[in-house]
Amino acid sequence: MNYFAHGRLFTDDPYFLAGTAVPDWLNVVARRVKVRSKHARPFVDDPDLRVAALARGIEQHHADDRWFHETRAFAELSWHFTARIRDGLPADDGLRPSFLGHILVEILLDACLIDQAPAQLDAYYRALAAVDGRWLEAAVGQMATGHPESLGDFIPLFIRERFLWDYLDDGKLCYRLNQVMRRVGLAALPDTFRSLLADMRQMVQRSQHDLLSAG
Question: pTM for the whole thing?
Answer without folding.
Answer: 0.95
